[in-house]
Amino acid sequence: MDTYDEVDRNLLSNNDDSEYLRLFSKVPTQTFIDIVRKRTHDDPGWIMMEFKRLPSGSNLAESARNIGPIGDSSVPSIEWTGIELTPDGRFRGDYPHAAFVTGYKKPEAFIASQVPTEATVNDFWRMIWQKDCGKIVLLTNLEEEIKKPCFCFWPEHERSATFGNLVIQTSEVLNKTFAIRSLSATHNITRVVNEFTLYHFTCWPSYGTAGNPGELLKLRERVTEDISKLIGPIVVLCSSGIGKTGAFIALDYVIRQAKEEKAVDVFQAVSNLRQIIPTFVESEKEYEYLYSGVIEALTADVDVNGDFAATKLCPLYMSLLENDKERLTDTYQVMAELSPVATVEDSSCNDQNESSPNDGAYSWISDPK
């Protein structure tokens, strides 16, 4: 593979996408951070230029339907393939505001979805039930900036709530940046009971990004490690179904690729996803945030080069501080340079969980001087 130094940087601004892919796209994990650092130093706007090269994804199947936004009137109308469902009593029809999405070497690993409304929530739950979706990842708040982008599809104040033919009961465990809710659903007719887990990430505003990607990596790690009896696709949803949802699914894809192939290809991963849903990873900021998440995952060895128990973190840190301070300093400098640094605001988003930086994202580790 050609190195960055051997490549004419004019390729970044020309229209030869095949040559760009050959020279820039897939990068070994060992050199990925150095290449990103080099490119950022030489041209701070290169991520924006790469983002503009992404395909629009307009070549979807002819059967795709053009469905308008259901959660946010500012979101442009996009094409969804929809999820086919079987009738359940008087509840009929498909769920048109979602689509199956391929993960890394796994067809239909995810269902990407817009958030439900009061009018669509019954069919939303029918989709989750029929497709055995044991894990649900919600990346938006119920209320943001005086608007209500998401209808609450679980019991918020009552002990239970009914959606279609399903009675839902819940219990929850709160974290600083995400809540984990155990949802028990009982079918009114068959009396079958299924258990679902809702992972609600509360630290990602409607516009912009979620700050330091460490917390999103922790959420992804928890979703990946938890075991569910239902082995259907993971439902990932946000207001538009394409921005935050696309970034989360792409991050999972690239981390799995890095673990198996020892190489990452952010550009190609998003390009492939955009053949399924147009404008997946909707904005330049989300694309840059995706790169930051990959960098932090590789730097922190989160689910890439091997896991270690949280109880071993402090002994490992102290050992490096005493025996390999240079390595520790180099790692910190890479993260500080290429990944957003967490702030006090990041650790207490939504003002609902007061917490100290000591329990925050990976980048809370202080400068090892």
From TrEMBL:
Assigned EC number: 3.1.3.48
Positions of the Tyrosine-protein phosphatase domain: 65-297
GO MF term list: protein tyrosine phosphatase activity
Domain of life: Eukaryota
Entry keyword set: Hydrolase, Protein phosphatase
Compositionally biased tracts (Polar residues): 345-358
Ranges of residues in domain Tyrosine specific protein phosphatases: 214-288
Segments of this protein annotated with the region Disordered: 343-369
Protein family: Belongs to the protein-tyrosine phosphatase family.
Protein name, as recorded: protein-tyrosine-phosphatase
Taxon lineage: Eukaryota, Metazoa, Spiralia, Lophotrochozoa, Mollusca
